[in-house]
Write a structure and sequence with these properties.
Elements lengths: L1 E8 L4 H11 L7 E8 L5 E8 L2 H8 L6 E8 L2 H9 L2
Antiparallel strand pairs: 1-3, 1-4, 2-3
Length: 89
Amino acid sequence: MLYMIIERFHPGKVEDLYRRFDENGRMMPDGVNYINSWINEDVTICYQLMESDSVEKLQEWISNWNDLADFELIPVISSAEAKAKVFTK
């Protein structure tokens, strides 16, 4: 399943977040795959597209970072999958 993850950095913690990332990487458990990410210009929000076979594994990944950011997980499908879903009703 694909998830759009909206990561809102805690105020004053962005440098700590990037430092941890440089030292430890993404710290993802098996079964979680990073696809791509985008950051707003204020460097306060990260939008990540991730793939995972379970929400529990994503929560495990989040537990490595939730002291530095708040997370929202949104299950998503591709535009092609959405179109197919609409026209198969």
